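Duplicate of #3305? Posting structure anyway:
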């Protein structure tokens, strides 16, 4: 397989709305890290939801690991995402009344694939990730709704990284972090991605982070949707 992600003539509109995305061509090699920027409302989160199979494109091809997500059922896309993607959502999507550790290990519930990739017990690996993200052990058994927003963001990151997914997708993952935590977060994210040969697609407004990445793109460079 040549590319981890390959997009051809992808088109998407939200129901009842004007076309939002038309991406003639985009490819991502395994191991690449891409920073995507663009104004609020331009469709960055929408593109990530297509890349992860949460939404399905109206037309075109979107291949991940050689599988065309536009040809798969919703259920098959959900399984594919659970097995191959770690997603840090803009709104975290944590389970508020479950503990920090339960939230992190929830990444494994629906994926035998991720469970099999662990080289140590799930809780041990989860604790390693939480420690590297500077989340103290006193927090591990707390329900996540008691954590600050910046702490919750790091729990979401640990959940996304657990089980060594081929692709990590991060939607504004540093927006609630202070400078120190942001630096620790980026260090962990890049270390983990390198360690597990994960590719990274990262959306942010924070241009100070651009030098970390192998490629920096504006959504407007990819998207011809608004001009046709
Ligand atoms: N679930 C949805 N249903 C209908 N329309 C949506 C939905 N999510 C997003 N949109 C619309 O799609 C457009 C792009 O939204 P999107 O969230 O992708 O932008 P964004 O670039 O991620 O913005 P931000 O930087 O503020 O996060 C907006 O006009 C928005 O109203
Ligand atoms: Mg967004």
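Output from current build:
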């Amino acid at each position: 397989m040549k590319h981890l992600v390959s997009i051809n003539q992808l088109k998407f509109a939200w129901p009842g709305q004007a076309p939002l995305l038309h991406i003639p061509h985009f490819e991502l090699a395994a191991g690449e890290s891409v920073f995507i920027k663009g104004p609020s409302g331009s469709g960055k989160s929408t593109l990530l939801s297509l890349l992860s199979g949460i939404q399905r494109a109206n037309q075109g091809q979107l291949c991940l690991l050689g599988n065309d997500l536009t040809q798969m059922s919703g259920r098959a896309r959900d399984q594919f995402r659970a097995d191959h993607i770690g997603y840090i959502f803009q709104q975290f999507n944590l389970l508020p009344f479950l503990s920090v550790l339960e939230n992190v290990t929830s990444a494994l519930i629906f994926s035998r694939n991720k469970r099999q990739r662990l080289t140590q017990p799930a809780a041990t690996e989860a604790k390693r990730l939480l420690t590297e993200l500077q989340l103290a052990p006193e927090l591990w058994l707390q329900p996540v709704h008691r954590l600050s927003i910046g702490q919750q963001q790091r729990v979401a990151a640990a959940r996304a990284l657990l089980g060594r997914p081929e692709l990590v997708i991060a939607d504004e993952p540093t927006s609630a972090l202070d400078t120190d935590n942001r630096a620790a977060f980026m260090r962990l994210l890049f270390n983990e991605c390198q360690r597990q040969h994960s590719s990274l697609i990262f959306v942010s407004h924070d241009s100070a982070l651009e030098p970390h990445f192998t490629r920096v793109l504006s959504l407007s460079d990819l998207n011809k949707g608004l001009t046709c």
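Confirmed duplicate; merging threads. The mean pLDDT is 93. Helices lie at 44-51, 74-84, 100-105, 112-117, 122-132, 149-161, 179-195, 219-222.
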